[in-house]
Amino acid sequence: MIQLKDLTSYKKKYAHLIVVSGLNSVQNRVCKVQADLDDPEFVTYVVDELYQRGARRVDVYWSYRPLLKTIYNYTSRRELCKIYPPELKRIEYEYDEQIAQLHLESYPPDWMEGIDPAKISKTKKAHARAILPFRLKAEREGKEGPWCIAALPGKKWAKVIFPKAKSEEEAYLLMWEKVITCCRLEGDPVKNWQEYNREIKARTRWLNNLKIKTLHYTSKNGTDLVVGVNKDTLFCGGAHDDVKDAPFNPNMPAVECFTTPDRLKTEGVVYSTRPLSRDGHVMENFAIRFHKGKIIKVTAEKGERYLKRLINLEKETHYLGELALVPYDSPVSNTKIIYYNTLFDENAACHLAFGYAINTTYKNKIRSLKPKQLKKLGINGGTIHIDFMIGTSDLNIVATTQDNKKVQIFKNGNWVNKI
Fold first, then answer.
1. 18 exposed, middle or buried (CB, 10 Å; 0-12, 13-18, 19+)?
2. What does 172-206 look like in DSSP terms, one character per residue?
3. pLDDT tens-digit profile of 46-77?
4. Burial of 151 (0-12, 13-18, 19+ CB in 10 A)
5. How many Å apart are CA 212 and CA 228, to the nearest integer?
6. Which residues neighbour 26 within 8 Å (Cβ) at sequence distance 6 or greater?
7. Is the pTM value of this prediction over 0.70?
8. Which helix H or strand E contains 45, and what residues bound it?
9. Can you give the C-alpha Rg of the chain in angstroms?
């Protein structure tokens, strides 16, 4: 196990990696860092790195989860859903200024336990709707700045992941050990991520050259699902390019190759293989059945009521907006840990997402289209995007190409070919 005396050097390496490879293009930019109060020392290292890389200004927004839970508990749902003009002005400024945004995730999965699920989901939806016009405008005009969501071990989260640890400190060090592995921090992390990006780009080129029409998922747990791949989108993965054509890695850790499904062309049933943690609620062992793209039946051993509530948030959450391919033999999966956090768990297994499609997959010819035009092309919209994990060690995926050839993509949970 990593020793406490060695942790500072790893923290500094990680902070450097997040700024250099995660955000990258921060020269003369305003930067926004969102973090919990779990590790102010690490956030200080990040801010120092941002300024060393030429950031014009860095704003840090702190969260304290027990306080936020208290606010949710006492404030009415109607009041929580209100977005006041100063907040809208700030959001508009952030998009217009193309600021660099970093979000550090470190909170435990059960932090909102006991709060009315309707209050949480409705509030999130209201805020997502408020942001939507600015997000869509930035996407159409190509004005998105770099952003990154990175995992940061928190002591309370670590104790949930390692309940048998002798102390909170031991759990914390074990959690850091997993971050070091999953985020490729050993050796030269920046070079490690450059190599990862080269591999993932080669993989997405292979997938795009196949011109896939559908993917058929099967596994022994009962999954038997056909998902149509939208012809106006591409497989993507690894680094994205910001408005200055500078590559940035939006997620750390990351393994996935993803694209956009055709919203009306999903048929069959799929079973979850990892818990879905959302807003302090955990949903486990659920099955979702689709017909003509739409979710028509949901069952779950745990959290069924909240899962159905999420799917019923809006019309678009009844349809898929993303499919992502992740080998079972991946750094996150190989830790054999359930993290109860989508950032980690989605990079341990193939996954799908209901809700809006990710615009980075769009071909150039459709990037400027409005939501109604995109919907006519079979691309899902809306304000919500929720990933759920479906990968197994025996998952097989067979592609049907545009010229009706069958090509096996996954066999027994992993890619059929090496890149």
1. buried
2. HHHHHHHHHHHTT-SS-HHHHHHHHHHHHHHHHHH
3. 999 999 999 999 999 999 989 999 999 999 99
4. buried
5. 9
6. 19, 50, 53, 54, 55, 100, 146
7. yes
8. helix 40-52
9. 21
Residues ≥6 apart with Cβ < 8 Å to 160: 108, 109, 110, 340
Rounded-to-integer distance, Cα 296 and Cα 270, Å: 12
Return the structure tokens found at 39. Answer: 């590790």
CA angle 232, 238, 241 (to 5 degrees): 70
**Segments in 211-270 forming alpha helices (H):** none
Best CA proximity match to 257, nearest among 212, 204, 295: 204
Which tokens is 324 given?
Answer: 């992502």
How many angstroms separate the CA atoms of 318 and 120, rounded? 19
d(CA 254, CA 196): 9
Kindly write down the DSSP assignment for every residue of 107-151, as one continuous string.
Answer: --TTTTTTS-HHHHHHHHHHHHHHHHHHHHHHHHHT-PPPEEEEE
Two tokens at 35?
Answer: 């973090």
Backbone angles phi, psi at 323, to 5 degrees: -130, 135
Q: What is the pLDDT of residues 278-287, one digit of tens each?
A: 877 889 999 9
